[in-house]
């Protein structure tokens, strides 16, 4: 049962990864007992499973994910939300309004209007129907302040870090509130513009260097240096 | 006086076609051997607005490809319930050839768009994202023969750069017959003057041909030889493609670790 690449080696679509006795993981496919990569990424083995950690991909909704989206249309029964995925998401009016929802009396644009940004959770999705969102949980709803930045959705796990180590470090060092949408959008809101700028810089650094090791330490170091620099000035 | 001069100059340019395209040492007009590709330069991720993009220079060809999607289909009725629709536009810039080309899509461009789409479709897992569309734009900035093949090579990289799941990259290359010699990667004059031109697209790791056309005439033996020549060319291009795709990330890694 041969393997053709070492762990963390860079592969391109169509590269033969393994033969016999292996099973396909993320971003791979099987043809005639052979396992190939289907995206550009880094190889990873987990027992008999072969993965490719994609370096660039788009967001595919998953039930339970927190996402950040933009209202693009107000319909009679709810809202259509762009969540940076191949499909637009639906948010039902009955999900937001406590009383029984009556289309003729409720003024939906006064709750969320076109262009508003919201934090929401995916409650239902399969490929035959558009994803359904909810805002009925603490921390969800309309975004009132902060900065929004966009990174490749595949790099979100790196931003969070092992058990949230990376994101909690950035929060601690910059004093910013950070909300991560699994769809690649991140909301940063801090006390001052300078704090926010630092956090945004750290996030961009993570995106650029996500496939390298020892990243948390380097980002910490960078943030500390920049903070000192500011205090001296 | 000056008028006559310009007229003479124009005549000269019209007669720039040399007597022989291949000299007695089997060296072609641009100094290449019979089985040699034009110099190739590929770059991936050149456009900020597109989801994926790539740029190629193959000899005098300069081609840009951009990919958008998968995204909701517009107009909606074109959406398919079981797979993504692949849409492709091959277009030549008005300044890409000697004589200004009308920017409106010509009959040839419409056909090439279809042919390129069909060459790329088998490489993409279209069934993963039903009810969406994947849009490919190929813009020829400067043309010197073999643009459909270079377009496929570039568009395939743009698709990979967009993070669309694929079976394999597609590499494409033409081979043909010029003045009795079988040659690889024909340039414009060779294509126009030569006897035959066979564009071929290949998924090298799967050994699957996704495009095969022929213009002109060849005997069966010649045809077989020409195909093998083109296959070799595709494989060479494939290694260049992989390098270009990887280099985008390798550079970032080296920067970080310095």
Which helices and strands appear, and what pairs or packs with what?
The complex is a heterodimer of chains A (233) and B (258).
Chain A: E1 10-11, E2 16-19, E3 23-24, E4 28-31, E5 34-37, E6 41-46, E7 49-54, E8 66-74, E9 78-82, E10 89-92, H1 93-96, H2 108-111, E11 117-126, E12 129-134, E13 141-142, E14 147-150, H3 156-160, H4 165-174, E15 177-180, E16 185-189, H5 193-208, H6 215-232
Parallel strand pairs in A: 3-7, 10-12
Antiparallel strand pairs in A: 1-6, 2-5, 4-5, 6-7, 8-9, 8-11, 9-10, 11-12, 11-13, 14-16, 15-16
Helix pairs in contact in A: 4-6, 5-6
Chain B: H1 2-14, E1 40-44, E2 52-58, E3 61-72, E4 85-92, H2 107-120, E5 132-142, H3 147-161, E6 171-178, E7 181-184, H4 188-193, E8 196-203, E9 208-212, E10 215-216, H5 220-257
Parallel strand pairs in B: 4-5
Antiparallel strand pairs in B: 1-2, 2-3, 3-5, 6-7, 6-8, 8-9, 8-10
Helix pairs in contact in B: 2-3, 3-5
């Amino acid at each position: 049962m041969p393997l053709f690449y070492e762990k963390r080696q860079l592969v391109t679509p169509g590269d033969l990864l393994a033969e016999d006795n292996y099973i396909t993981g993320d971003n791979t496919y099987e043809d005639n007992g052979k396992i190939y990569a289907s995206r550009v990424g880094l190889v990873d083995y987990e027992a008999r499973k072969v993965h490719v950690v994609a370096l660039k991909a788009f967001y595919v909704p998953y039930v339970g994910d927190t996402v950040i989206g933009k209202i693009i249309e107000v319909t009679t029964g709810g809202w259509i939300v762009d969540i940076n995925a191949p499909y637009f998401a639906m948010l039902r009016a009955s999900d937001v309004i406590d009383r029984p929802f009556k289309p003729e009396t409720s003024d939906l644009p006064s709750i969320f209007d076109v262009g508003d940004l919201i934090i929401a959770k995916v409650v239902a999705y399969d490929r035959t129907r558009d994803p359904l969102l909810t805002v009925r949980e603490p921390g969800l709803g309309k975004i009132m302040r902060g900065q929004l930045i966009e990174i490749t959705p595949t790099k979100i796990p790196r931003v969070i870090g092992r058990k949230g180590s990376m994101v909690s470090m950035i929060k601690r060092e910059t004093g910013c509130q950070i909300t991560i949408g699994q769809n690649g959008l991140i909301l940063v809101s801090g006390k001052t513009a300078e704090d926010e700028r630092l956090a945004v810089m750290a996030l961009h650094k993570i995106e650029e260097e996500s496939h390298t090791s020892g990243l948390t330490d380097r980002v910490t170091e960078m943030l500390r240096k920049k903070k000192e620099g500011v205090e001296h000035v | 006086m000056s008028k006559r001069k310009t007229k003479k100059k124009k005549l000269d340019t019209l007669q720039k076609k040399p007597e022989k395209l291949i000299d007695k040492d089997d060296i072609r007009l641009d100094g290449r051997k019979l089985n040699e590709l034009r110099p190739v330069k590929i770059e991936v991720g050149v456009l900020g607005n597109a989801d994926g993009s790539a740029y190629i220079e193959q000899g005098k060809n300069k081609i840009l490809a951009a990919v958008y999607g998968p995204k909701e289909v517009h107009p909606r009725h074109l959406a398919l319930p079981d797979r993504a629709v692949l849409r492709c536009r091959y277009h030549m810039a008005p300044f890409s050839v000697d004589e200004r080309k009308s920017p409106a899509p010509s009959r040839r461009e419409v056909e090439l768009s279809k042919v390129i789409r069909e060459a790329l479709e088998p490489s993409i897992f279209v069934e993963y994202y039903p009810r969406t569309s994947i849009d490919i734009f190929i813009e020829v900035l400067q043309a010197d023969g073999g643009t459909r093949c270079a377009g496929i090579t570039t568009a395939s990289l743009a698709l990979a750069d967009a993070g669309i799941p694929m079976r394999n990259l597609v590499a494409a290359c033409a081979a043909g017959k010029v003045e009795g010699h079988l040659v690889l990667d024909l340039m414009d004059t060779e294509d126009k003057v030569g006897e035959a031109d066979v564009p071929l697209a290949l998924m090298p790791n799967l050994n699957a041909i996704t495009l095969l056309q022929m213009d002109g005439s060849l005997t069966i033996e010649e045809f077989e030889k020409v195909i093998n020549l083109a296959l070799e060319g595709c494989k060479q291009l494939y290694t260049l493609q992989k390098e270009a795709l990887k280099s985008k990330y390798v550079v970032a890694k080296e920067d970080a670790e310095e």
